[in-house]
Amino acid sequence: MNATQRSDYWLKVERLRRSLDRKYSSLFYGVLKSELEAFAKDVKKLGPQAAVSGLGAVAWDEKLMPIMRQMYREIGVKFGNATFRAISVDSKKAADPYGLNDEFLDELTSFLIQWGFYLAALMTKTTKDRLILLVTKALTDGLSNDDIILLILSDAQMRYARYRATMIARTEVMRASNYASLKGAQKHPFLVDKVWIATRDARTRRIPKDFYDHWNMDGQTVEYDQPFISADKVGRPIVVDAPGDPTAPRGFTINCRCAVAFIPRRDANGQLIMK
User: Fold this and answer.
1) What's the pLDDT tens digit per position in 84-109?
2) Of 55, 59, 108, which is closest to residue 81 (Cα–Cα)?
3) Predicted local confidence at residue 97, as pLDDT
4) Is the Cβ–Cβ distance between 31 and 70 less than 8 Å?
5) Over 90: is that where the pLDDT of 119 sits?
6) Distance of alpha carbon 35 from alpha carbon 160, whole angstroms
């Protein structure tokens, strides 16, 4: 897969992801916004200290999880099927029947949801910690309850909530799309190699500008069951199955835009190599 083919593939993937990014960042933001408003009401009704004391018992992440589950299933269908069809065309077997059944989707969703629970909890904890600091400082500064409520519902807080929602949506759409693509590629009866695709622009991670590198991973090709390998700024190895691998350091995956593609493996005579 040459540079032009990788660029074309990435653009197709990015178009699919973009609408999902917008859809789910909006849904995540809706949850966070409603919880900020509920917290502001608690401050008005109970007072700042009582509202902060009760904040830890409010399970915001439980309201995020149904959205994440919906997102994973939608992405599983779109990217699993798209990858399978793309490999079918490359292998000249476009007539192969394929469909993602509920068992496949449940398996895919179950894997992703393990990390989704962690990320939802992290997102809500970060937001709650920010609110606790805000209220604590406001009380120290002698602000009134009404002033504290205005701070909670301020444009700055809403922008932060939107930023968090956008970051999680982008990261999870990327993670889920690449994992669904891996599973779709696995369904073929023949061997495939996988290719790391990074778009090379000013935002692409690279060393020494960044702590991690995706720039030089662009085009790295390995067997399906082998990992991609990179290294951080101090030389420690990063070993991952695909972009968005949840076992990788957070800084390696957050807001990543990379994709994984697949190439059917052939023997010396150009024939597909069966598993």
Assistant:
1) 666 665 555 544 444 556 777 777 77
2) 108
3) 44
4) no
5) no
6) 13
CA distances from 18 to 120, 154, 167, 251 (A): 21, 28, 13, 21
As given in the structure block, the two tokens for residue 144 are: 């009134």
Rounded distance between C-alpha atoms, residue 26 and residue 162, angstroms: 8
Q: CA–CA separation, 249 vs 212, rounded Å?
A: 9
What would you report as the CA-atom Rg of the chain, rounded to the nearest whole angstrom? Answer: 22
Cβ-contact 259, 197 below 8 angstroms: yes
Residues 6+ apart with CB under 8 A from 193: 221, 222, 223, 224, 262, 263, 265
Show me where the domains of the chain are located: 3-188
Residue pointed to by tokens 């759409």: 173
Least confident of 93-97, 125-129, 208-212: 93-97
| Residue 13 CA: distances (Å) to CA of 3, 21, 80, 86, 158 | 15, 12, 12, 12, 30
Query: Helix or strand or coil: residue 90?
Result: helix
